[in-house]
Amino acid sequence: MAMAALRREGGRFAPLIYPRPITAFRSSPLPPILENEGPVGVRYISTQVVRNRMKSVKNIQKITKAMKMVAASKLRAIQTKAENSRGLWQPFTALLGDLPSADVKKNVVVTISSDKGLCGGINSTSVKISKGLHKLNSGPEKETKYVILGEKAKAQLIRDSKKDIELIITELQKNPLNYTQVSVLADEILKNVEFDALRIVFNKFHSVVSFVPTVSTVLSPEVVEKEAESGGKLGDLDSYEVEGGETKGEILQNLAEFQFSCVMFNAVLENACSEQGARMSAMDSSSRNAGDMLDRLTLTYNRTRQASITTELIEIISGASALEG
Amino acid sequence: MVIVPATTGQMGVLPGHVATIAELKPGVLSVHEGNETTKYFVSSGFVFIHANSFADIIAVEAVPLDQIDANLVQKGLVEFTQKLSSATTDLEKAEAQIGIDVHSALNSALTG
């Protein structure tokens, strides 16, 4: 009776626990069971630490499950938008092609990333590719600058490429994404940054489990003219009659700017979808891990509890048999 | 057949049209399929007519005509005319002028 009461009060009476070396039959890597010297000289085993650990792991599991649900619902909302926006840049690619191999003097890499974390490795892959593009396009008379969208890429790129960053834009997803917002953004970039080629790095959303890092290239009108003259993919551009405007150059300028804003719109939406999908799978694996951990902790907890009951019984019985005989 | 509001005027596009890139101004886009016609108001954009008789129309905003509210069009027109008269910088004048162009095109789309 007294023993049980003492055990229950264990956490409060005993001075704060210090782990004793682990006993032979325990094989789990978790903290060893605690043996305390109580004030009466009685030894009892406390399950308090394991219980606390179980509580916190269970909370983490609940939180990550909730985050997964939230990400799933946000993904549903934004996925239709992203799929509809694909039709926006396809005509441009049909006309002007996508020429990642265009060799130009002034490259601008637009890296699109998320503001919030806990979304797996998508931001790291985008940054890796941006850095790769920078390296690829370095050489005499060539320069590459960065335009960064999103906190995560900013944190990673500001460490070693601070001098190459032209523009940083964050908090993109505060309001739901729409074309007007992105076109204002595109306008800012076009006004403030000189470029011959814009390379937009983002994660394209293929399915909930697959996000492919992609680079879309938008060329400035002068480069388009040059490529058209040299033949190759853009060779047929000259066969198109250009209506309206004073010169062909003016129309091509408007075209390039419109193309940039359309491609940006699609890229931002796809990246947002990829972010939510990556977060879903990250939170899913996290809650599964928490569940596994909880199972192991439960086993330890039960072993501890049973061991202390056995100890109590042994002491009672040996005390009783000592009295008898 | 498709009739697009290009900057140089209304342009009709039939299969076999020569390959063209044209910029659009605010106006009515009408798609004639057989005996049916669907009309949209387009704020601006581009039309690419390819040599294989495919045409791509990319518009910043396109609205079916029956979804336009006439009262809001009138209000917008009045508002932008006011803005033009009170505009000081070239930028403000240009923006007000664009607003007037779009709203008067909307007006004529609804009436005409």
Automatic annotation (TrEMBL), chain A:
SUPFAM superfamilies referenced in this protein's UniProt entry, alphabetically: ATP synthase (F1-ATPase), gamma subunit
Keyword Transport: yes
Top-rank taxon: Eukaryota
Keyword annotations of the record: ATP synthesis, CF(1), Hydrogen ion transport, Ion transport, Membrane, Transport
Record's signal peptide: none
rRNA processing in keyword set: no
Entry-linked InterPro entries: ATP_synth_F1_ATPase_gsu, ATP_synth_F1_gsu, ATP_synth_F1_gsu_CS
Subcellular location: Membrane
PROSITE patterns, sorted: ATPASE_GAMMA
Membrane topology: Peripheral membrane protein
NCBIfam families listed in its UniProt record: ATPsyn_F1gamma
HAMAP family: ATP_synth_gamma_bact
Assigned protein family: Belongs to the ATPase gamma chain family.
Protein name listed in UniProt: F-ATPase gamma subunit
Organism field: Hibiscus sabdariffa
UniProtKB/TrEMBL annotation, chain B:
Coiled coil: none
Protein's cellular compartments: Membrane
Keywords assigned by UniProt, alphabetized: Ion transport, Membrane, Transport
Entry-linked Pfam families: ATP-synt_DE_N (PF02823)
Limits of the ATP synthase F1 complex delta/epsilon subunit N-terminal domain: 1-53
Highest rank taxon of the organism: Eukaryota
Annotated SUPFAM superfamilies: Epsilon subunit of F1F0-ATP synthase N-terminal domain (SSF51344)
Record-linked PANTHER family: ATP SYNTHASE DELTA/EPSILON CHAIN, ATP SYNTHASE SUBUNIT DELTA', MITOCHONDRIAL-LIKE
Family label: Belongs to the ATPase epsilon chain family.
Protein name: ATP synthase F1 complex delta/epsilon subunit N-terminal domain-containing protein
Provenance organism: Hibiscus sabdariffa (roselle)
